[in-house]
Design goal:
The complex is a heterodimer of chains A (about 850) and B (about 170). Chain A is about 35% helix and about 25% strand. Chain A has about 850 residues and is an alpha+beta fold. Chain A folds into 6 domains: about 150 residues, Four Helix Bundle (Hemerythrin (Met), subunit A) (Up-down Bundle); about 55 residues, Helix Hairpins, CATH 1.10.287; about 180 residues, Histidine kinase-like ATPase, C-terminal domain (Heat Shock Protein 90), CATH 3.30.565; about 140 residues, Beta Barrel (OB fold (Dihydrolipoamide Acetyltransferase, E2P)), CATH 2.40.50; about 140 residues, CheA-289, Domain 4 (OB fold (Dihydrolipoamide Acetyltransferase, E2P), Beta Barrel), CATH 2.40.50; about 140 residues, Rossmann fold. A 6-stranded mixed beta sheet of chain A has the order 12-16-17-15-14-13. In chain A, strands 23-27-28-26-25-24 form a 6-stranded mixed beta sheet, with helices on one face. Chain A has a 5-stranded mixed beta sheet with strand order 4-6-7-9-8, covered by helices on one side. The longest helix of chain A has 26 residues. Chain A is elongated and about 115 Å long. Chain A starts with a helix and ends with a helix. The C terminus of chain A is likely disordered. Chain B contains 4 helices and 11 strands, in the order αβββββαββββαββα. The N terminus of chain B is likely disordered. Chain B is globular and about 40 Å long. Chain B has one domain: CheA-289, Domain 4 (OB fold (Dihydrolipoamide Acetyltransferase, E2P)). Chain B starts with a helix and ends in a 5-residue tail after the last helix. The longest helix of chain B is centred in the first third of the chain and has 14 residues. The chains are: A alpha+beta (about 850), B alpha+beta (about 170). At the A-B interface, helix 6, strand 19 and strand 20 of A face strand 4 and strand 5 of B.
Chain lengths: ~850, ~170
């Protein structure tokens, strides 16, 4: 039988199954438009598909039925018991024809004129003539034990006619699972046989083996199919739900469902049913406006919720969209701030897409009033968790005033996933295809190939991928496998949440459909694997968990430190500020062609000094500036006063007595970007390099240059502090002044610490709530809002930071201040901006237990 | 499960033809003997699902050192454990093939990698002796009892505890 026809029959059977009950409901409540709509849709679908399949008889019957239903639906005729009877008879006739179709693949012969005449009469508003009530159907005799309904009485609606029972049986899932396992084993055995035969077995076996092979494949397919169900099954209750919601909320809502026939695994279907219902409810309640508001906004009164399902590369994509008010980004922003989920600076650095993702946080709701139905955001965390549990992803897009769309991407089945098979250090691994964005083959330099290659920023490998710098994770290294870090292999570009990263592997084989099996309990602690499986060749292979890998590699995933999509802040950003936050940077050129950058906050003024005004004293250039002598430090060691431009650009740092002019060649630009400084190119005076505005830029170490002028802001020499600095211990700097924050952060970063900075004690506590952890906290004392002393007391009162070294940084370092600081819980008290003392103190705190340090 | 039990008996029968002496003793007292580094050990035969010759084993990175990897037993994934390593003994020389004793624990299959598999013998409770208190702590943990044979001792392994790894 034609696939199309088979599909049609299955679908029609399902539709018919629900019709009897629906018609009964309709008869009791003739005003139930939802049920009427449901009945109409089923009959309409049958009619439409019939025409397509060339089933003339069925089409004629369905068409006549649809006419009558259409009249009821548009309200031009009332629903009458007689009419219902007519329709029930029509349904029976359809059933009989469908049964015939199922048996023979062709429409059975029969005369439906009486039935059609009855329906037409009813549609014309006349009572049906009783003598036409009986329909004669001549159905081809069949071996089936189920007698086809040849003559259907004008039965009471409650009496379901003994027509063709739906050709389905209930089978427990275990039976299917067992079948699945057996088939997997069969496939493996088949493969082994085929290999034996290929190695030169008896040619007599070839033909039967091929037959066996084919049957096995078909069997496998068949067993897989038994688990598939159309997604429409999960949607079945939505029309009613939406209708009821519309009534309850006084809204007019259209529910449009597309792709209901898209099939997916039964187990997945069960798991997405509730989340889908929730999202639809959410759209109806919060997405769509009331008719008055919609009218006022110039939109049609009736809001529309669209469900759309389709297959895409081994996955099923479901879109739940509405044309309502959309998500209010501003409200989300305020809510994020109110709940201290992120700082202003972090928010400013976020794209709208990231901001919208906050609605997936637990307890996050933007609904001003949480109604009985749903708060927008209430439960979205649950939805997200459920989706992720089955290996799915959820995204949200919104346009204020025009609606919001949630897009869910889930695997077709939990049991079978498409996976990329890779090799690393002679071991093979499977990577679920859903997280793989693309594959990059690295050029083999030795063979003169010119493909992309891995670059290193200190020890951290990165790859230039179009306009971004992709952090790389070496699978060899991560899994502690033997084998040299390869420079040729492949990079599997993967995505976890908004984070993109590359996985370096030695070889890439094929993609294969794999059956995911959980690992043994004694291996459950290995978070880098999501399971294991048996490949077609019978070997066991571990399945990599990209989420686990991202976590193990220190790449931000969804959570407190989601990186911005463009400037992913990778693990190698040791000297950077807190990830995701943007820093205004002044870009300039000095000496060589590589652009240089300095945090704009550090620069007091940008001046041009006339060459004639530059003097020299003791071999050092000086300029009279604002009534005093300001030392000038050329960034380019080859700078010479005699060839300096007539108008010399100078960056002025600091104020008054502590001023310093940095002599540069040219001011290029101001960029507002997330500063992720990699240690590459770190040399005296430079913290390292970063990619800014698409160019590799060296970030200058301001403190070092200030020291060059004898300006002792931080005490002595940076290189000594750098060497003395620990590994990348994480330090949190709490400091309200952006200026000094910008000084302290690079200074600590230069000493090798991983520094995060926040502008207030409140923001620091929010980080604590979010689960961030540090090895030490450095805090200012005088701050607006919660001051440093209160902050220290709060930290010491309990929570995960209770035992952290806590350093006070203050301008007042009189003995009584120090005492007050210690009372509040500070481990040490450092006079403001004595860098040496600060670094010494941090080093001391980190090497000694707190009890001794305090 | 019925089919699996049959399978086991078949395997054992082929493995030790005519050596199955356990006809009269109750099944609970019947042990499969095996050797690791010249030590004779026993596992309750009821715990054994299969005995296999050396198999292709996929290594599992970052797994505990006792875990050798996983192997495919007729479509089921079996986690293989080096019994030598579990007992704190030196690894088996690479040249010696070894055997897999497949046992089940909480519905999962595990393979104990041993040097050789011996007979299926009845070890009635009369021959039991308590573990000597001086026994190596690792062995004390894994051993259930000691059984005295005429000529030598058999360490009766507690499969459950032998597989308590990585918890």
């Amino acid at each position: 039988m034609d696939d199309l026809l088979a599909d049609f029959l299955t679908e029609t059977q399902e539709g018919l199954l629900s019709l009897d009950a629906a018609l009964v409901r309709l008869e009791r409540a003739p005003g139930d438009t939802a049920t009427l709509g449901e009945v109409f849709r089923v009959v309409h679908t049958i009619k439409g598909t019939c025409g397509f399949l060339g089933l003339a008889r069925l089409e004629a019957v369905a068409h006549a039925g649809e006419n009558l239903l259409g009249r009821w639906r548009d309200g031009s005729l009332p629903v009458t018991p007689d009419g219902i009877t007519c329709i029930l008879r029509t349904i029976d006739a359809i059933r009989a024809i469908v049964a015939g179709l199922e048996r023979t693949g062709a429409e059975p012969e029969g005369d439906d004129r009486a039935l059609i005449a009855g329906l037409d009469a009813a549609a014309a508003g006349k009572a049906p003539e009783p003598e036409h009530a009986a329909t004669r159907l001549a159905v081809a005799p069949a071996p089936s034990t189920e007698a086809p309904a040849t003559a259907v009485e004008a039965a009471a609606p409650a009496e379901a006619p003994a027509g063709v029972a739906p050709q389905t049986i209930r089978v427990t899932v275990e039976v299917l699972e067992d079948l699945m396992t057996l088939v997997s084993e069969l496939v493996l055995t088949r493969n082994q046989l085929l290999q034996l035969s290929r190695r030169g077995g008896d040619p007599a076996f070839t033909a039967p083996l091929q037959r066996l092979s084919q049957i096995t494949s078909e069997l496998q397919e068949g067993v897989m199919k038994t688990r598939m169900q159309p997604i429409g099954n999960a949607w079945a209750k939505l029309p009613r739900l939406v209708r009821d919601l519309g009534v309850e909320l006084g809204k007019k809502i259209d529910l449009v469902m597309r792709g209901a026939e898209t099939e997916l695994d039964r187990q997945v279907l069960e798991l997405i049913r509730d989340p889908l219902t929730h999202m639809v409810r959410n759209s109806a309640d919060h997405g769509l406006e009331t008719p008055e508001i919609r009218r006022a906004a110039g939109k049609p009164e009736t809001g529309r919720i669209t469900l759309n399902a389709f297959h895409q590369g081994g996955h099923i994509v479901i879109e739940i969209g509405d044309d309502g008010r959309g998500l209010d980004v501003e409200r989300i922003r305020q809510k994020v701030l109110a709940q201290r989920l992120a700082t202003e600076a972090e928010l400013a650095a976020m794209g709208e897409r990231e901001l919208l993702r906050f609605i997936f946080r637990p307890g996050f709701s933007t609904a001003a009033a949480v109604t009985a139905v749903s708060g927008r955001g209430v439960g979205m965390d649950v939805v997200k968790t459920n989706m992720e549990r089955i290996g799915g992803m959820i995204e949200v897009a919104s346009a204020l005033g025009r609606g919001a769309t949630f897009t869910v991407k889930i695997p077709l089945t939990l049991a079978i996933v498409s996976a990329l098979i890779v090799e690393s250090g002679t071991e093979r691994f499977a990577i679920p295809q859903i997280g793989v964005v693309e594959l990059v083959r690295l050029g083999n330099r030795a063979q003169g190939e010119n493909g992309p290659r891995i670059e290193h920023i200190k020890d951290a490998p990165v790859l230039r991928l179009r306009d971004r710098l992709l952090p790389l994770v070496g699978l060899n290294r991560l899994l502690a496998l033997e084998g040299e870090a390869t420079e040729e292999g492949f990079v599997v570009v993967s995505q976890v949440g908004a984070q993109l990263f590359g996985l370096i592997v030695d070889r890439v084989f094929d993609t294969e459909e794999i059956v995911v099996k959980p690992v043994a309990p004694i291996l459950r602690h290995l978070t880098l694997f999501s399971g294991n499986t048996i490949l077609g060749d019978g070997s066991v292979i571990m399945i990599l968990d990209l989420n686990g890998i991202a976590r193990a590699a220190g790449l931000g995933t969804e959570g407190a430190e989601e990186a911005s999509p463009r400037d992913a802040s990778p693990a190698w950003a040791q000297a950077g500020t807190d990830p995701g936050s943007r820093t205004a940077l002044l870009l300039f050129r000095a000496g060589d062609a590589t652009p240089k950058a300095v945090p704009l906050g550090l620069v007091a003024r940008i001046e041009t000094v006339e060459r004639e005004r530059i003097e020299t004293a003791g071999g050092r250039p000086l300029v009279q500036y604002r009534g005093r002598l300001m030392p000038l430090v050329p960034l380019d060691p080859g700078w010479d006063l005699s060839v300096a431009p007539a108008q010399q650009p100078v960056l002025v740092f600091g104020e008054d007595e502590r001023g310093l002019g940095l002599v540069v060649d040219e001011i290029l630009d101001v960029a507002d970007e997330a500063l992720s400084v990699g240690p590459a190119g770190a040399r005296p005076g430079f913290l390292g390099s970063a990619v800014l505005s698409g160019k590799v830029t060296e970030v200058i170490d301001t403190a070092w240059w200030l020291a060059q002028a004898g300006q002792d802001w931080f005490g002595a020499d940076a290189s000594g502090a750098r060497a003395a600095g620990g590994a990348s211990a994480r330090i949190l700097v709490v400091e309200d002044s952006a200026f000094f924050r910008n000084l302290v952060v690079p200074a600590l970063g230069a000493a090798g610490y991983a520094v995060s900075a926040v502008p207030s004690a409140e923001a620091a506590l929010a980080l604590r709530e979010a689960g961030a952890m540090f090895e030490a906290v450095v805090s200012d004392i005088a701050m607006p809002g919660m001051d440093g002393l209160a902050f220290a007391r709060e930290v010491r009162a309990g929570g995960p930071w209770r035992d952290l070294p806590l350093l006070a940084l203050s301008g007042n370092a009189a003995p009584e201040d120090v005492l007050r600081g210690r009372d509040a819980g500070f481990s040490d008290y450092v006079a403001k901006y004595d860098r040496d003392a600060l670094l010494r103190s941090i080093a001391l705190c980190l090497t000694q237990p707190l009890a001794e340090a305090a | 499960m019925g089919a699996r039990t049959m399978q086991r008996q078949d395997t054992l029968a082929t493995l030790a033809p005519g050596r199955v002496v356990a006809t009269e003793a109750s099944a609970a007292e019947v042990y499969l003997t095996l050797t690791v580094a010249d030590t004779l050990c026993g596992v309750p035969v009821l715990a054994v699902r299969d005995v296999l010759t050396a198999q292709a084993i996929t290594r599992i990175p970052l797994a505990p050192p006792e875990v050798a990897g996983s192997l495919n037993l007729r479509g089921r994934i079996v986690t293989a454990v080096h019994l030598r390593s579990r007992l704190g003994l030196a690894p088996r020389p690479a040249a010696e093939a070894g055997m897999n004793v497949v046992v089940e624990r909480e519905g999962e299959l595990y393979s104990l990698l041993v040097d050789a598999v011996g007979d299926v013998v009845p070890l009635p409770p009369e021959g039991r002796a308590a573990k000597p208190p001086t026994l190596d702590p690792l062995w004390r943990e894994v051993a259930a009892d000691v059984h005295r044979l005429e000529d030598r001792l058999v360490i009766l392994l507690d499969v459950e505890r032998a597989l308590a790894i990585g918890a």
